[in-house]
Amino acid sequence: MHRWLSQIHEPQALQAMSVRELTELAQEVRDALCNLVSERSAHFASNLGVVELCLALHSVFDFRQDRLIWDTGHQIYPHKLVTGRYPEFATIRTRGGLMGYPNPAESPYDLLMTGHAGCSLSTALGLKTGDDLLGRTDRRVVAVIGDGAFSSGIVFEAMNNAGELEKNLLVILNDNKMSICPRVGGMAHYLDRLRTNPIYTGFKSEILKVLNRVPLFGDPTERFLAQMKEAVKAGLHGGMLFEDLGFRYLGPVDGHDLSLLRKYLKMVQTLPGPILLHVLTEKGHGYQPAAQDPTYFHTPPALKNVAGESGLNGKQGPAYTEIARDAIRAQMVRDSRVTVLTAAMCQGNKLGPIRDEFPDRFFDTGICESHAVAFAAGQAKVGIRPIVDIYSTFLQRSFDQIFQEIALQNLPVLLMLDRAGLVGPDGPTHHGAFDLAYLRIFPNLVVTAPGDAYDLQAVLDFALCHDAPCSIRYPKAAAETLPGRRAPVELGKAEIFSWGCDGAILCCGALLSECLRAASCLQARGLNVGVVNARFVKPLDVDVVQRALRECAFVVTVEEGCLTGGYGSAVLEAASDAGWDVRRFRRLGLPDRFVEHGERRELLADLGLDAQGITRACLALADKADMLDVRADAGRAATSQPACAP
């Protein structure tokens, strides 16, 4: 039991604590973080880096009234610990437990569920203007944003607007020289210059000597010193980019010095207009391995179980991400026109070896997905074959560029959608639920969903030879390669694994092995049910769909994506266009709600997307539910063999 954490039920308790006591609390927070990651994978290095900043914010501001937005909410663990959730902290990222991101359902101190980067300034400005319109002009709004997210285009759209509106808005730039991987781009170099300018650094040290002698609360001398510092700094050009956008720039400030942080935060409480406070932190601070390798320790495997989770059925093996990476590399060796673009996800997409081997054909745009897609369109226009490798949920941010710059121009850009489907403990902000629905609406764009590791490589080979835009989706899971002779990949053609007159399971994507297990279970119950690997969502294999509706007693579609507008909807549309009776038809997929966090296998079982759930759906359609003896099969589900009984 931690002495201070166990006593903090509301963050206002921090306002009565001394700097020494807050320093002790900071150590307890880091201890709690280390205890957590020793048991399970969790966001680690980023949370270690913001401990003092979080405590300083809560010790100065009262966020019962004031507003606090954490940009990219994976750095919110210290905030959760001091806002009354310490007793539940051990449940974080488990099904039914605390979410690993801000969650308004958990606490009034979590205003928005922030899982993507860059939006905090816009929402903070919206909060401030809304409060002012409602007569709550006394409320202060604070947005904490990292330097990696700061390159996002929406950040500068918000700063442009905020500078004109001149609202009292505090933006804290948490500069740890990192995104998940080391930050990239011109903004990164600019921030480095602010960190290291030798003239300004020397001047700043002298100012801090004086500033540290000033009392903490409300001394007019402090404001005078701050203004003097600003005047001299402006002459040295430090922070002038922000000044020219209408923000008063303060810093850089040591983000691990609690006393100094509190002084600056107290000072900016009284300053009018938009303010940018530049805070320097160290990702992984306080735990030497994480500080030395913050990329690995961004979300490390459990320290007591480095093997970690591996797929739906606990099987060891390479992940789909690694299969995709190796297939991309093979294409780059084969064809010098192939390039790879990613948006600050080199580590997540396992692209480090490609970056190192092909530095002139690898492009990391930073957290700028819209730019990455439009960038790729330009490459494709001149004859390059670009691959844009981005998580499904992040690619949504480039929706308009997929429309205008790729599909409308019919340019051969390949979109590789990692983390498609359920991503487990990261939860609803990161589930890749919507890509099939939002991509298949575009003319010219070929939409694919490989069924296994073989398919992923074969579809990639096809896509880079196809003279039109394509997308390939694959899950965050251990890859499986199904046995047997496989059909070659042809545009718009499904692969028939088996055919049965009793029913057909049309599988879209990497749940193919679960569908095959379900078919085996149904076979044991006297039902001859075939399995089709859809491969293509667009163009749809209408011939196979119509054959299934014509010859089979029932048809079930299975997809790890939203039911609204997804693969099952495409099949229904084709059936309706052909005039078929679809009363013996059912779609299985993600429901019309945001799916909670939990292990992928748990979520698939909850949603009826494992072998048992698919079996249940087929039995219900076949009017054979009475054949099932639930009690007799209840024990079978606990065995080590794949369970067939629903």
Structure, explained:
The strands form three sheets. The chain has a seven-stranded mixed sheet, sandwiched between helices. Strands 1-2-3-5-4 form a five-stranded parallel sheet, with helices on both faces. A five-stranded mixed sheet has the order 12-14-13-16-17, with helices on both faces. Strand 10, helix 19 and strand 11 form a beta-alpha-beta unit. By secondary structure, the chain is α/β, with parallel strands linked by helices. It is built from 25 helices and 17 strands. The longest helix has 21 residues. It folds into three domains: 294 residues, Rossmann fold, CATH 3.40.50.970; 149 residues, Thiamin diphosphate (ThDP)-binding fold, Pyr/PP domains (Rossmann fold), CATH 3.40.50; 144 residues, Rossmann fold (3-Layer(aba) Sandwich), CATH 3.40.50. The chain is globular, with a radius of gyration of 27 Å.
The proportion of residues in beta strands is: 5-15%
Q: Which regions are unreliable across 5 or more consecutive residues at pLDDT < 50?
A: 198-203, 306-315, 624-646
Strands, count: 17
The radius of gyration computed from the alpha-carbon positions, rounded to a whole number of angstroms, is 27 Å
CATH class of the largest domain: Alpha Beta
CATH superfamily of the largest domain: Thiamin diphosphate (ThDP)-binding fold, Pyr/PP domains
Query: Can you tell me the CATH topology of the largest domain?
Result: Rossmann fold
The number of domains: 3
CATH architecture of the largest domain: 3-Layer(aba) Sandwich
Q: Which structural class should the secondary elements be placed in?
A: alpha/beta
Report the biggest beta sheet as strand number plus sense, adding barrel if it closes. 7 strands, mixed
| Sheet with most strands: strand arrangement | 7-6-8-9-11-10-15
Give the N-to-C terminal Cα separation: 43 Å
Q: Report the mean per-residue pLDDT as an integer.
A: 87
Helix content: 25-40%
Summed up, the helix count is 25
Which geometry do the CA atoms define? globular
